[in-house]
Amino acid sequence: xxxxxxxxxxxxxxxxxxxxxxxxxxxxxxxxxxxxxxxxxxxxxxxxxxxxxxxxxxxxxxxxxxxxxxxxxxxxxxxxxxxxxxxxxxxxxxxxxxxxxxxxxxxxxxxxxxxxxxxxxxxxxxxxxxxxxxxxxxxxxxxxxxxxxxxxxxxxxxxxxxxxxxxxxxxxxxxxxxxxxxxxxxxxxxxxxxxxxxxxxxxxxxxxxxxxxxxxxxxxxxxxxxxxxxxxxxxxxxxxxxxxxxxxxxxxxxxxxxx
Length: 259
Ligand code: BTN
Hints:
By secondary structure, the chain is α+β, with helices and mostly antiparallel strands. The chain is 23% helix and 31% strand. It is globular and about 55 Å long. Biotin binds at residues 15-17, 39, 42-45, 48, 50, 59-61, 103, 113-115, 131-133.
């Protein structure tokens, strides 16, 4: 079943991710797309909420059942990040970047968030929901994120069609997703992903459950982990003792700001 061949569209829904999960549990097909004008309980990463009151932004989720071990699905976040970046760049005529693992940034500020959720309706089978929130229109962001959030229209200085944007993203996602499923890794996407990584060769602070450290981000592995050269006692990046940072466990911040 193709990506977005079956579409559920809502004026308002609690969360397109939650709805895709419910529909999946009721037997909706692989590739089903859920889109909403607004969300009343938009979900962000790490239990945060995703501000979704504003009409004009893009909120959508894909229901997927890839034939891959469940521990590989977190990589879909990176696959989607690349698809959104490429689709949005083409449509808006601007240059964007990826803040690992999955924020799309314009001029150093976040314009897109992606939330991938794994769900096991039965013991032996899973479904995965990849949800995307794109700030499309110019808007007043809540005070706590105002300094680090932007929108595509603000960055491009022109009107953007949500429908065209969604189509551009889904076309790219379908292509990258096919490669990813065939290979079961990001091997073929790694180079292009790295070339768009705003963290690359920058100092980052890795916030792990057990503590935090600083280091230089070097790129991703074929499993989508961030390669970090931790700082030694002199503050120099130690490239002999690379660490692989797994997105599920940690948060990565730029030392000098959001990226
Ligand atoms: C993040 O915290 O950066 C991820 C935000 C993901 C938001 C999108 S909006 C559409 C989909 N439905 C949700 O409830 N969340 C995702």
